[in-house]
Specification:
The complex is a heterodimer of chains A (251) and B (214).
Chain A lengths: L1 E10 L5 E7 L4 E5 L8 E7 L9 E8 L4 E6 L3 E3 L8 E9 L4 E5 L3 E3 L4 E10 L4 E10 L8 E10 L2 E10 L17 E8 L13 E5 L4 E8 L2 H14 L10
Parallel strand pairs in A: 1-5, 4-6, 5-8, 6-9, 7-10, 8-11, 9-12, 10-12, 11-13
Antiparallel strand pairs in A: 1-2, 3-4, 12-15, 13-14, 15-17, 16-17
Chain B lengths: L2 H8 L14 H6 L6 H28 L4 H10 L4 H21 L11 H11 L4 H24 L3 H25 L13 H10 L10
Helix pairs in contact in B: 1-7, 3-6, 3-7, 3-8, 5-6, 6-7, 7-8
Classes of the chains: A mainly beta (251), B mainly alpha (214).
Organism (chain B): Actinoplanes regularis
Keywords (chain B): Chaperone, Cytoplasm, Nickel insertion
Subcellular location (chain B): Cytoplasm
Chain lengths: 251, 214
Amino acid sequence: MKAEARVVAESDGLGGTRLAVLRGQSPLLLRQTGPRVAGGVTVHLVGGAAGPLRGDELRLDIEVGPGAWLELLSVAAQLALPGRPAPASRLTINATVAAGGTLRWIPEPLIAAAGCDHLAITRVAVAAGGALLWRDDLVCGRHGEDPGDFVADTLIRYDGSTLHRHELAVGPRAAGWNGAAVLGDARALGTVVTAGPATLTAGSATPNAAVMPLAGPGLLATAVDADIRAVRAVLDPFCAAHPTAKAPVPA
Amino acid sequence: MSLATLLLLADGRLPSGGHAHSAGLEAQVSAGRVRSVADLDGFLRGKLATSALVSAAFAAAACAAPAAFAGLDAGLDARTPSPALRKASRAQGRALLRAGRAMWPVAAIGREPHQPVALGALASAAGLSPHEAAVAAAHGTITGSASAAVRLLGLDPYAVHALLARLAPECDRIAELAAARSGDPVDELPAAGAPLLDIGAEHHATWEVRLFAS
């Protein structure tokens, strides 16, 4: 299955945000829903079909203009499944945030089911003065099963420089992924990357989590655990309390 | 190429302070994740696939083009979210550079480069190839943790070295992969991360009493 979705958020000129473009194809359907946020817009990703399955080629483009505030959520977890013999499924996300714009990406977890072969490519460019909060949660396998192959390939740039470059591989092809350097016994991982000077904030660490100031203007909060609930217990409050959660107040 | 020169560069006795670092192992031992040789095996295989691959690729790239050090240094910053790990890498780079300058005419690459950048510049000054720099980097990544494991856990040194011997082919494979990609643009160089190493390093840095600097 091939699908493309695109959302463009721009300032409405009155201190609020409007969606200039909102379109998608199953299984990447976008709906303006969620709580009404003064000054900002919330969009939900609605899974319109099972998957991603092997062979799927999915693409999501996100554009946040100057002064716009956009939060992207999803209604349910993504379940990466094996499907028929085919090349790896791939989800490519390209996002840009202009100066004065804010993007919050907080989807439900990706579950890498046994036998899946999935690649998630994330490319985000934030202009100087823009703000980003980018969350990704991963669950390795459904209950009691080992995960299939999953690779996350992430590049986040701020003001023209690479701020965060990270790859994570789990599954049978990833040597040592369940060793004590990478995930150990943990089967759930959550990461939040923020970009922009206005996104730096203190976070509390637990034995299985850390909030790390990056070398550039941003930070990474990482939490691992046997269970995704423990990861959410750390990262949900972090995202809710984060400075980007406040949309601009309309004039 | 000189095999004896490569052995010198990869020798744990090189006076560059490497023995003071467990490369993330001490934190995982304390967390109870590494208790046995089998646990160490999993730890080292994960390291080879992640931080060793990244270090080897950047060492090879710095060996091929030491003048490109600033971009490589920034590339490692972007791949090292943990401030404690960035600090440890730069401290080791600086110490390695100091030892290296006494041995070979090392190019100017800044005062405190990341360790793989320093290693690559030393290899270049010593007349070694990018592939040899990658082998030294990958080898150093796992042998440092292995000898720390003997000291931290009292593991049988024969069993630990038997493990290193089993991992040698994987170490070679990682170094070859790293060298093959070392000409790529910095953003496309390997970026495999290891969440437990990041989290562990941040906690380890706050301990008042510890055996290793990282």
